[in-house]
Design goal:
binds 3-methylbut-3-enyl trihydrogen diphosphate, Undecaprenyl pyrophosphate synthetase, 8 helices, binds magnesium ion, 252 residues, globular
């Protein structure tokens, strides 16, 4: 499998609420069980040599949930960051958070800043947590940045390219996600990485996130290893030059 290992895996961790409901537990118990699963996943990715893991922790639409659940999710996020960051640092993991963090309570903004600061120079797995993140927000903020530069005369609107937008998106500079996994049975993107998933292989599983273990992850990796990624080309073209690498948006 190692010859077809994804460089970047992006995951929607869904199904915590249903997992808890099945057990007559409060939804927050599902979220807590979900956090537990992240630890083993990070460990596995680091061991395998996967370069980037990007996890959807809280969407820009999740604010629509009952206020008490939102509060609990935020508190859980703070606790998880404070408890796990040292271990992540010891494992050489570099942690980054994407999304509009400016609306989070100060204690969460501080926990994020501390974790990013501590792990910023690490060269191991690049773990990105998407929090108050939405794919439309991401494209909008990148478009706004370009518009501002055009307004002050720093760039010509007619010269704007996809690469220039890409450079202003979250995840700029990282390889594009190779494998997307959604746990929890739904087959939708839910406003996750809309721009970045253009050529990502999609894997949907009914497994609820708190049940998503290393064996489930290996199944997704095996599924990925069996796909032929054509990027618009023909199968014959790829057979003629199997080593042909996908160059997209100027990223490596
Ligand atoms: C995913 O699980 C976690 C977050 C969205 C924060 P859900 O809470 O959406 O679980 P279900 O979909 O209700 O089962
Ligand atoms: C997506 O799950 C967001 C996260 C897992 C953080 P949702 O549960 O919010 O997605 P929908 O509402 O079912 O589309
Ligand atoms: Mg859900």
């Amino acid at each position: 499998m190692s010859n077809r290992l994804p460089r970047h895996v992006a995951i929607i961790m869904d199904g915590n609420g249903r997992w808890a409901k099945q057990r007559q537990l409060p939804r927050v118990a599902g979220h807590k069980a979900g956090v537990e699963k992240v630890r083993a996943l990070v460990e596995r990715c680091a061991t395998l040599g996967i370069e980037c893991l990007t996890l959807f922790a809280f969407s820009s639409e999740n604010w629509r949930r009952p206020a008490a659940e939102v509060r609990l999710l935020i508190d859980l996020f703070v606790v998880a960051l404070n408890e796990e960051t040292r271990q992540l640092h010891a494992r050489e993991v570099k942690l980054t958070v994407i999304g509009d963090r400016s609306v989070f309570p100060q204690k969460l903004q501080n926990a994020i800043a501390d974790a990013e600061h501590l792990t910023g120079d690490n060269r191991g797995l690049h773990l990105t947590l998407a929090a108050n993140y939405g794919g439309r927000w991401d494209i909008t903020q990148a478009a706004r940045a370009l518009a501002q530069e055009a307004c002050v005369g720093k760039l010509d609107p007619a010269a704007i390219t996809a690469e220039m937008l890409d450079e202003r998106m979250s995840l700029a500079g990282l390889p594009e996600p190779d494998l997307f996994i959604r746990a929890g049975g739904e087959q939708r993107i839910s406003n996750y990485l809309l721009w970045q998933l253009a050529y990502t292989e999609l894997h949907f599983t009914d497994c609820l996130w708190p049940d998503f273990d290393v064996a489930q992850f290996e199944m997704a990796l095996a599924h990925y290893a069996g796909r032929q990624r054509r990027f618009g080309m023909t199968a014959e073209q790829l057979q003629d030059s199997p080593g042909r690498r996908h160059q997209h948006l100027g990223r490596e």
